[in-house]
Amino acid sequence: MRHIEKDFNNPPDGLMDSKWDELKKDAVNNPAHEANKNCYRDTTLDSLVKLYHNKCACCERDRGTELQIDHYRPRKARQYKKKPEYNHSGYHWLTYEWSNLIPLCSSCNNAKSNYFPIQKKKINDTSITSSQELHLKEAPLFINPEIEKSPEKHFIYFPDGKIEGRTDEGGEMVKLYKLNHKNLKRERKKIIVNYRLNIRKAIQFYLHKDKSKEYLKGRLESIFTIILENGKKYKAFSLMHIFIRNYFREFIAKSFPENISYKLNISFQNYLSLWKKNRKLLNFF
């Protein structure tokens, strides 16, 4: 999950069309209001997919137009016998609020369902539609990437593809969004394993094909570049790549024999320093 800058005061034109006025009015006054997907989904999907760089707001998988529009604060009440601690009366008046709509993949959307754990008292005042005000008064345990400036502080990734929460918010996200389900965990691990494999191939080619050190240096740096570029906000699994960058030794280098591991880590750290200097230089211009 990465922070997204959304202009809450500038919703898509289609969502603000006057033909939806009566629908929105009913949503505010009627807790049993039946949502019209043509309004909240069809008018916002393209804008949200673009805003989130084709990625799921939660797991960061690249899903493009397969993404679904989710209500961050669930519009329907949750009154289940199972896990009653998560029950709430719903946020029907936010059904068509631009600030309450985020894109999720089907996996995250189905797992989230209408869970919405909070640390304070639920707001039932239909006059309050400001995401920031609601956030302060309720203190949600689900992270809103449009409000939280540093979602990364809530999570930690591991070389086996696992993710854990660093905070209560992160812990609830991992648990209720099922961020360690086998397919998602396998996708993350595969990325890490492929980096190791490509580095191993480069080293073996250097050793057995009598290639120069400059050849090996070039091959490794091309892999390092991919790792660093994939840490950019618009890339899939970008937050995991930040962890690979910051803990390269644990994620990548330690899988190699000790003598190679040490040299590999030094090579990456040197390249990382150069990469950062180049970025600062580009930003200067």
A few lines on this structure:
The chain is mostly helical. It is built from eleven helices and four strands, in the order αααββααββαααααα.
Molecular structure report:
The protein has 285 residues and is mainly α. Helix content is 45%, strand content 5%. It is built from 11 helices and 4 strands. A two-stranded antiparallel ribbon has the order 1-2. A two-stranded antiparallel sheet has the order 3-4. Strand 3 and strand 4 form a beta hairpin. The longest helix is centred in the C-terminal third of the chain and has 27 residues. It is elongated.
Helices, by number, come to 11
Strand numbers in spatial order across the main sheet: 1-2
Average per-residue pLDDT, rounded, comes to 94
Number of strands: 4
Summing up helix and strand content along with how strands pair, one would put the structural category as: mainly alpha
Estimated share of beta-strand residues: under 5%
Helix content: 40-55%
Rounded to an integer, what's the Rg over CA atoms? Answer: 22 Å
Distance between the termini: 30 Å
Write the topology of this structure.
Layout: H1 21-29, H2 37-40, H3 45-51, E1 68-71, E2 101-104, H4 106-112, H5 131-138, E3 155-157, E4 163-165, H6 168-176, H7 182-208, H8 213-229, H9 238-246, H10 248-251, H11 258-284
